[in-house]
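Q: Two folds, back to back.
A: First:
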Amino acid sequence: MKLYVCTLCELGRAGFANTLRHAMPSGVEVLEIECMSGCGRDQTVAFRADGKTAYLFGDITLADLPELQNFAKLYAASPDGNFADARVLGNLRNKAIARIPG
């Protein structure tokens, strides 16, 4: 799975990608991308895996790190990236900008 991190957002400019590299479970490749057009919802990150629904989240803060870690585990375990009940996403469900079919 890939986790994309906007480097133009405030946290992105401060090295958020490195923080995520050290915090994510194994199997998560953290990649930096210059812009994901989520500028109205600074900081944006996106999760993507082959054959799975992709997710774009915004308004991410350092306080969201535990929920991002949890999402990575749930996403890895999901066969298609979809969740029957969005409550398992915690506060991230309120920070979702887009869900893109795989």
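A: Second:
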Amino acid sequence: MRSPVIDVAVGSDIGSRYSANFDVTYLRARPLLAVLADGMGDGPGSAAAGRTAVDIFVDHVADAVEPGPDALRAAVAAAHARVSRIGQELRTLAGCTLTAMIAAPDGCWLVQIGDSRVYRLRAGLLELLTADHTMAWLGAVHGWYPFDSPQAAAARYQLTRYIGHAAAPEPDVLSVTMRPGDRYLLCTDGVSDQVGYDDLHILLRREADPRSVVAGLLSAADLAGGNDNATAIVIHVD
């Protein structure tokens, strides 16, 4: 199968809440390898976790001919092990989310652990392809409390899975196709929590290059308050 022609872009904004940016990315267009991590909190453990998790994941995956689910889970397990050691060495919380999109023979693999997200715009429909590993997500799905309630807001910060978790939970690994015209967005919660669905839809369906779309997403997050580091990777399938 001939590989799809894609155009990609990445961008990140520190926002107004933190003195540093704890989001980390890696992006390669051909073959596609897009990875982002969002550190938990604003301490040294957060910074070390994000950088370490992305570096280890990329080291395990970048040179593989056709990385499959077992290789992707092994890459996450290696990141777990190293980030856990960092927490022990620093005697503080060390953890991060990790979300990735990797080229595969029949499309791509998605790897998800934490609450960063992958969206797909196809034939006019914007879909969220990943699930948030948070108590807020479980609460919304099972009706424990209204999605926009104070309880839900507090539960957004209670991650059930993340890199560095003591139980080393496995990531979700999903296989998705890629079709001409698809638009994909990988983003941290600094984007998804501040830019609503309708605005995401409008920005992603614009007939603009991915760099302009990334700039629009980060600007929208800033206008919404800039309450978190905001990072976006946009992928266009031509």
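Q: And?
A: The two ends are 16 Å apart (CA to CA).
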